[in-house]
Write a structure and sequence with these properties.
The chain has about 150 residues and is mainly beta. It is built from two helices and six strands. Strand 5 and strand 6 form a beta hairpin. It is extended.
Length: about 150
Amino acid sequence: MLNTVILMGRLTADPELRHTPTNVPVTRFTLAVNRDYVKQGAERVTDFIDIVAWRSTAEFVNKYFHKGQLVAVQGSLQTRTYTDRDGNNRKVFEVVADNVYFAEPRRDNSSPRFENDDYSDSRVESEPVPSYTNADTGDFEILQDEDNLPF
């Protein structure tokens, strides 16, 4: 059977990392995903889709993603049932994220929410970006006969 979901949308709130009683990291967040089709004269419809991430994916999401950020999620659709406080049976559909990806470039130079991690070296962000111009091609030789190429 095939159960694969790929979504791109914006986080509606900052993810919050929690732990199960057996200390397994888990985070839940909601993606606002715009529908592609818009009826003429109508406003675009947005779906709010619940996502759950476990273990290292949960820690990654909590550390690097924040409210309003555009992200891509790859995972599977799952259902679960529960009884609410009033005794009513409820059914929930949610995407269990296998992978979460950055879907836009960083907007600011802020560091991740956790300090003292492997990626917080401020020297990396302060190095100048090299500019590229037309280079001198004097070191290259133009080949006339392509039949003698080694590949």
